Amino acid sequence: MQVISRVLPLIGSLLFFFSFFPASATDYYFHPRFGNDANSGLSAEQAFQNLEKVKALPLEAGDRILLAGGETFFGSLELIGFRGEKNNPLIIASFGGSETDPILSRINAKGYLNGILLENSSFVKVENLEITAEGYGKHSSVGQMRVGVMIRASQNKGVKGITLNRLILSRIFFENPEVKRSYEETKSANGTQKYGWGIRIINQSQDGIIEDIEILNSQISDLSHTGIKLTGNANHNIRRIAIKGNKVYRTGGPGIQMSGVKFVYVADNEVMYSGSNDDGRKWGRGSGLWTWGSSMVLIERNKFMHANGPGDSAGAHIDFNCDNIVIQYNLSAFNAGGFAEILGNNYNCAYRYNISVNDGHRVKGENGAFQEGKIFWLSGYQGNKKERKGPVNSYFYNNTIYVSEGIVSKIAIDNRSKGILIANNIFHLTGKTELVSGDQYRPDDDSSRRLDDVFFKNNVFLKEGLWPESALIQSDDTLFGDPLFMKPGGLNMVDYTPQNSELVSEGIQIPFLAGDKFGLIEGLQVTKDILGNPISKNPGIGAIQPFSKASESKKEY
Predict the structure, then answer these.
(1) Among 79, 176, 216, 233, which one has the highest count of C-beta atoms within 10 angstroms of its own C-beta?
(2) Global pTM?
(3) What's residue 431's pLDDT?
């Protein structure tokens, strides 16, 4: 079978919105202090006052809803059932300042369910707005969430062509500041109480599709649960999503999470301090990113750092029921739960060309932790009521893993795993290592089974004895030595450039696992390393392609 050459050609074409307004388009202005809902709304001097007025407007494709920059609107902006045009979207934005330096307007949705609601609406662009929503307010709310921006399909017409660009979402909480959650709430799977979320995309329709959505260049911080959350169904009814260039900081839950999606591209984001517990209203647990029940997802060139929590809380992990998830070219650092985590019933997933620094430092039993942190974990878990299964065809290659002295590097491999490739990695583990059972693992009649289709070759370890002898799989053709990183322990990718090129120069071509006819989205072989350096005929070992002084002098520019 021919391997897919590019993961999502159509994702690259998602940038189809242009600043094109036909003569018939109408601008509607809003000002919270000097506006009046009896005005025409057709100029800044005749601005409307309240966001509720949007519901009464005869909106057409190409129209603009313009909110006064530097001002605060109280309430919720709701757009329900609007259908724009692909190259002529409705614009919701601020006015004031310049095109390159706009003055943002703020929506304070305290007491409302959403700062902005886009329901059963298509071809809409929202940009240059700030949204907060903290506490109960005077308005009663029904439901278990408060959301900065909600995109929802509740009818079979679906939702298509929405861009969120240059938004700032912060201080989004359902409760008032005095609320403090119990430790038991943190142990629940996703939380059971009322929370605040940044951006949510939810498909509640039977047959409708949410597709062609972009979340770009936005800042999401300081809220009680997930920063960006996509919720589809088993048919993957959320498709063709791009999440690019965002900064997601100090969320009480995960930074980015997706379920029931297909064809998703996540790139160039910074996700830091997910699972934050610096406010009693925050959940206090969460990976930088995780997928569940998802298909064809490419996650590259992101930073996942300082994830916190007593469970989960990896940099980026692949939960169960996924296929074709590739995590590549990312920096993962100081995440309590670990670096690489692939759960059960997953097929053809990979971690490749990533750098991991001091991930998996959490110790079970300390500070309320109920899971061990791990640098490498294959788990067959696919739910409490199902027998363990897989993962199947897991590829782990050309990663650089650095763990400083004082942190125990823990490894867990479920005996139901089938098809494991571990090759061309640098395991620079300066402290002790330990094999752990995995937190959902339960020994059974098959506890002594052998693992099938294992390719474990050509990895560099700092010294002998670092891979646990009792592990179900053992490496062949292992190399030992110090790659001589430029700055071990640093937080820049270039710090892990190996100076000992002789040790790490002889990588091998990555083969298909036995019985695997598909491989990975974008293919098994890549053309560049994590820094963008070209990869020669044979790759090196680790995430950064080594160059000797001789080869460096022969480079052509």
Answers:
(1) 79
(2) 0.93
(3) 94
